[in-house]
Amino acid sequence: MSLLLIAPNRDLNQLSEELQNIDPNLEIDIWPKVKNKDRVTFAVAWNHPKNVLGNYSNLKAVSSLGAGVNHLLNDESLSEEINFARLITPSLKSEMAEYVLQAVLAYRQHTTRYTDQKREAFWDKHKLIPKEDSVVGILGLGEMGLSIAELLILNGYKVNGWSRSKKDVEGITSFSENELGDFLNSSNILICALPLTDNTHGILDLELFKKLKKPGYLINVGRGQHLIEEDLIYAIDTGVLAGAWLDVFEEEPLPSNHLFWNRPKIMITPHIAAVTDPKEAAEQIIENYKRSLSGMEMVNSVDRKKGY
Ligand code: NDP
Ligand code: OXD
Q1: What is the architecture of the domain spanning 90-268?
Q2: What is the CA radius of gyration of the chain?
Q3: Which ligand is nearest to the CA of 246?
Q4: Disulfide check for 206: which of 10, 71, 127, 231 has CB 3.0–4.6 Å away?
Q5: Rounded to the nearest whole angstrom, what is the distance from the C-alpha of residue 128 to the centroid of ligand 2?
Q6: Residue 45, strand partner residues
Q7: What is the DSSP letter of 162?
Q8: Which of 48, 71, 223, 226 is the catalytic position?
Q9: What is the pLDDT, as a whole number, of residue 35?
Q10: If you ran DSSP here, which 8-state letter would residue 121 be given?
Q11: For ligand 2, which residues put their CB under 6 angstroms from it?
């Protein structure tokens, strides 16, 4: 039996070493060097080429190398019998929360404007965006959304949350799926921490931005496909939104001629909000590898019908 690691453009050697440290007898293949496809029963995948895994006839389960699973759900060659899991680790959650907190602070304190001003040796002061104009609305109250909410609440922010099912969490005003309008009307800083599904694809559009309380600001850490990119540019250019902080994009890497690069009110980071730590990941991968061999449900398993 063998475990396959498949993630083009990612260095998988450290993860392989961490897995071997836990279980020295583990047989590991790193794609594209696979000794015997028929021995592979478990794969760990990140942005793998579509249809490649369809050739592994004994594959029982696939774990995403991150929290998102849209790359697995999009791969029609993965038959319905194959179970999916994802990686949720303590550092992934805390990194995400810290990333969003710094984006909120940078927006309120005009950090990117001051960075631009320094480049031009230009002295100018801007008024801090007050906390009362900084009610945070989190789209998606799952592992990431709740971790973000917890840190923001600790820092004194008023937090709204939107999810399919209503949540009862201290400090969060929770809105269910059909209460999106009320959620938006009472939120200034919109944080997208949704999974990418048929229902959430393109959710961040002009109509939605117009419903936000003013001043409105967007932070997207979900997926680029949540956002209608031209709507964002229009919303910022026409004052519907004060700006945006984006970590994920429809096309990654973001093409060098993309309009976002020249917009001072759009901050860009290269999909680094929270990055899977190989040591923490290895423990969960081994656990799920063993569970899949024994037919047990995996930890952080994915409901393929729900799409997350
Ligand atoms: P979870 O599956 O834990 O949570 C998803 C949340 O979204 C749940 O609260 C769910 O509601 C809600 N939701 C799903 N569909 C809808 C809908 N149609 N309407 C309203 N609410 C909905 O996901 P995670 O928190 O672990 O991750 C979220 C996403 O963050 C990932 O899929 C990935 O795309 C992204 N991510 C990005 C990273 C980065 O570095 N930029 C790092 C890690 C993750 P309910 O609770 O009712 O089910
Ligand atoms: C993830 C991500 O889903 O990095 O973990 O986007």
Answers
A1: 3-Layer(aba) Sandwich (3.40)
A2: 21
A3: 1
A4: 231
A5: 32
A6: 6, 64
A7: E
A8: 223
A9: 96
A10: T
A11: 66-68
Q: In what order do the strands lie in the sheet with 217-220?
A: 172-175, 159-162, 136-139, 189-192, 217-220, 243-246, 266-268
**How many CB atoms are closer than 10 A to CB 283?**
14
Structural element, H or E, at residue 137: strand 136-139
226 lines ligand 1 (CB under 6 A): no
Q: Residues spanned by CATH 3.40.50.720 within the chain?
A: 2-89+276-294, 90-268
**Half-sphere exposure (Cβ direction) of 86: Cα atoms closer than 13 Å:** 19
Measured between alpha carbons, how far is 243 from 241 in angstroms, rounded to an integer?
A: 5
pTM: 0.98
pLDDT at 197: 97
CB 63 within 8 A of CB 44: yes
- The 10s digit of each residue's pLDDT in 119-159 is 999 999 999 999 999 999 999 999 999 999 999 999 999 99
Q: Which segments in the chain show pLDDT lower than 50? A: none
pLDDT (tens digit per residue) in 5-44:
999 989 999 999 999 999 999 999 999 999 999 999 999 9
DSSP-derived pairing of the beta strands 136-139 and 189-192: parallel
CA distance 62 to 45: 7
Which pLDDT belongs to residue 140?
A: 98
- CA–centroid distance, 27 to ligand 2, in Å, is 26
Catalytic (active site) residue 271: yes
According to CATH, the topology of domain 2-89+276-294 is Rossmann fold (3.40.50)
